[in-house]
Each structure stands twice: as structure tokens, then as C-alpha cells.
Amino acid sequence: MEPISTALAGIALFKSAVDGIKGAISTAQDVGDIAGYIDNLFEGESQVQKRRNKKSGVGVGDQFGIKSVAQEIIDAKLAKEQMQEIASMVDMRFGHGTWAGIVAERAKRIQEAKEAAAAARREAAKRHKELQENIKLAFMIGGVVIVAAGFFFIMMVTIARGTGY
User: Fold this and answer.
1) What distance in Å separates the CA atoms of residue 39 and residue 159, rounded to the nearest whole number?
2) Closest alpha carbon to 34 in 110, 107, 92, 86
3) Rounded to two decimals, what is the model's pTM?
4) Which of 33, 82, 139, 158 gets the most CB atoms within 10 Å of its CB?
């Protein structure tokens, strides 16, 4: 997917999530009833921010063009306004601090996922290093065995020649 269509998909996902939350908030019995919309809201906002922060694959004219810059700023401001509106709606419906709790839990889970991924990378690097050391050790042991077998063979040939067999 090219960057512009990615941004449009992010904006569309964000807008549809906002519409879904607004439509379901009054009948929702708990936050779980609108959880899917909240996930889409965060995913759409994430895509919009990634598009705004990442310019690879976009020509210089598109990257610095007035239309592109204006659209990105307007989309970011609209997304921020709508996030505030959704935060207020969720807090009004489910009690003060609910939205802050959702945001905090999401941040905590993202951080835990990053830490788990970093730990997995460290563990993989450690296993790779141990494997390399084991391979080196195996080659050294193999070399010593070959040299010892060579000396043994030479010694046996020398002894056999010396005894006349």
C-alpha cells in the first residue's frame, strides 16, 4: 500500500471508529461493548501519526507541498479534537478517569510488548553467540583430533619402517 492510501485508510479507520463509538456509547453496558471501536480508534490514530512522521517513498514535492502539509496538520488536529470528544464521552458514560485508565493500560501493554520483543532479541543474540562459540570449539577439537591422528599415523609408519615390517 502506498503512503497516501495508507494515510487515507488510517483516517477512514479513525473516522469510522469515532462514528461507531458515538453510535454505541449510549447503549453500551460496559467499555467492552465499544472496545473494538476503541481499538480501531487507536489504530487509525497510529496510522495517521506514522504517515505524518514517515516520509519515505514520498517525493519531495509531495512531502513539502502546501496541500500535503496542510492536510497532515488538519488531520492531526481533527484527530486530537475527536479523541478529546471521545474521552469526554467515555468518562461521562462510565465514570471519570475511565479514558485515562484505558490510555494508561494501553501504554503499559505497548511498553510490555516492546520489552518482551527486546528481551527476545537479546536472547536470540545470546543463543547465536553461544552457537558460534560452540562451532569454534568443535572446529578446534576436530583440528586437535586430526593433528593427533596425523601424529599417531606418522609415528606408526616410522615405527613400522624402523622395525622392518
Assistant:
1) 82
2) 86
3) 0.61
4) 82
